[in-house]
């Protein structure tokens, strides 16, 4: 029996994930995980809003970091998009977006400390690379004919504004709005490295066992994300952008000599600082690769492969919850609520919660990655399925799912999954900060030991690994001829 390329690719990924299970640590090490899970559930259904009198400041700081970082990233991304045809620009953008916001934050913490600039740049820099890529794709899709009808002598800026940008404006606005939602999630997660956003207070409440406060903070965060279209209105946006920098708070004064020392001394490999030259650099790199980089790469790849396949399985199970072909109005509302919660919860936050429940292993990371990304893809597939028109005599139930809807969605499903592959890889690496032995674990350990030279090499390896996976995913999409408008799927 001959299988189609898409089926062979799917089976190959499943088999590879099953093999990875043999090497993965998926154990539960806590004494009574169900008791902790029950306490968390009770905190969600009985939130203690009175105990979170600080929440107003936390939300304002979360919004301020998100608006400022996304605005700077969007401005820089638009400028880079205009030069995206140059290989140097594309390479620069690929590199900066391959490094997770938390890695950027860890870098800036070393010389800016807990200064607002740390959080703003941690969001703005990778987002600039993402914006550049997507904005360039949007602009490339515009009709070139209007530009040819401009009067002679029209300036380049005026021509660009009245032709390509004017055509692309609705798509640019739509994507930027989506990135703001991503920015809110990134801003909240920055609290886990000490910045005063919602993540900081969530971690503190967990550490103190105050599950009522945890439940209240999570509910407020979900409401903030779910209602973003209600309070982010075009006429209010200038006010938000002007107010945001003033709501970032203040930190310790920046010691600029620390910044200079970081770039001129701290990140220089130790053998070179000691004057050993190339003879000492080889053994230093070999030790780093053998004992940290290679184990980190292996665990990152194993965890990513398992999470990717589980993400796909969950997405195929979840999309009928919001599809008009399988559910009614009441069921669809409940399904939308579930998917909003799943896709609104950052993987890092969800993995942190599950680690408290189950203990340190790959299991919390796998489940967190699959739930978040499965929720995103499931939501998009459900929307896509609502555009499908079935014939009058189409079967119902499982036959409808298997023979009518899934075959029409499978191409877009694989395209979305491959687009999320690189993002899952980025998140897998950063989850090492929580104690899982991926690349992020060794990066964080090097920073804690004040070995910034080792940390920077490991971060560089992480970026190159993400770029390699992105290239592989693009080639698979081209080989399988998978096309889907996924401009909103880079978060």
TrEMBL record:
Matching InterPro entries: MetI-like_sf
Membrane-spanning segments: 50-82, 214-232, 239-256, 297-322, 334-355, 361-381, 423-443, 455-473
Database matches in SUPFAM superfamilies: MetI-like (SSF161098)
Keywords annotated in UniProt: Cell membrane, Membrane, Transmembrane, Transmembrane helix, Transport
UniProt-annotated location(s): Cell membrane
Membrane association type: Multi-pass membrane protein
Gene Ontology cellular component list: plasma membrane
UniProt keyword annotation of Transmembrane helix present: yes
Protein name: ABC transporter permease
Organism: Halotalea alkalilenta
């Amino acid at each position: 029996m001959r299988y189609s390329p898409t089926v062979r690719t799917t089976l190959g990924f499943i088999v590879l994930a099953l093999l990875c299970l043999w090497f993965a640590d998926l154990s539960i090490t806590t004494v009574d995980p169900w008791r902790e899970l029950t306490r968390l559930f009770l905190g969600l259904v009985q939130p203690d809003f009175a105990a979170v009198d600080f929440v107003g400041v936390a939300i304002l700081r979360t919004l301020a970091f998100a608006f400022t970082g996304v605005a700077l990233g969007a401005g820089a991304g638009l400028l880079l998009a205009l030069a995206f045809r140059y290989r140097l620009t594309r390479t620069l953008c690929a590199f900066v977006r391959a490094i997770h916001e938390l890695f950027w934050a860890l870098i800036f913490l070393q010389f800016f400390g807990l200064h607002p600039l740390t959080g703003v740049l941690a969001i703005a820099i990778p987002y600039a690379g993402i914006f550049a890529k997507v904005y360039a794709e949007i602009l490339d899709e515009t009709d070139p004919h209007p530009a040819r009808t401009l009067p002679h002598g029209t300036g380049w800026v005026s021509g660009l504004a009245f032709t390509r940008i004017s055509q692309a404006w609705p798509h640019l606005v739509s994507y930027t709005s989506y990135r703001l939602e991503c920015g809110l999630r990134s801003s909240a997660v920055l609290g886990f490295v000490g910045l005063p956003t919602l993540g900081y207070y969530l971690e503190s409440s967990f550490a103190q066992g105050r599950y009522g406060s945890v439940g209240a903070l999570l509910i407020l965060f979900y409401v903030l994300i779910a209602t973003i279209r209600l309070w982010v209105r075009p006429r209010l946006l200038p006010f938000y952008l002007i107010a945001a920098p003033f709501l970032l708070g203040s930190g310790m004064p920046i010691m600029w000599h620390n910044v200079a020392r970081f770039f001129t001394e701290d990140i220089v490999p130790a053998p070179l600082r000691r004057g050993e030259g190339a003879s000492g650099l080889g053994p230093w790199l070999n030790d780093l690769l053998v004992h940290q980089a290679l184990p980190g790469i292996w665990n990152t790849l194993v965890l990513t492969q398992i999470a990717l396949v589980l993400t796909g399985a969950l997405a195929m199970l979840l999309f009928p919850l919001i599809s008009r072909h399988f559910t009614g109005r009441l069921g669809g509302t409940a399904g939308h609520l579930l998917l909003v919660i799943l896709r609104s919860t950052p993987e890092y936050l969800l993995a942190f919660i599950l680690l408290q429940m189950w203990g340190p292993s790959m299991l919390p990371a796998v489940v967190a990655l699959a739930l978040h990304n499965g929720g995103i893809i499931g939501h998009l597939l459900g929307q896509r399925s609502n555009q499908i028109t079935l014939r009058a005599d189409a079967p119902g139930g499982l036959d409808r799912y298997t023979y009518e809807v899934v075959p029409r969605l499978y191409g877009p499903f694989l395209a979305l999954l491959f687009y999320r592959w690189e993002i899952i890889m980025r998140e897998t690496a950063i989850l090492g900060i929580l104690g899982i032995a991926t690349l992020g674990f060794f990066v964080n350990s090097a920073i804690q030991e004040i070995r910034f030279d080792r940390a920077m090499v490991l971060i560089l390896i992480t970026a190159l690994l993400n770029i390699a996976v992105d290239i592989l995913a693009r080639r698979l999409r081209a080989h399988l001829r998978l096309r889907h408008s996924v401009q909103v799927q880079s978060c």
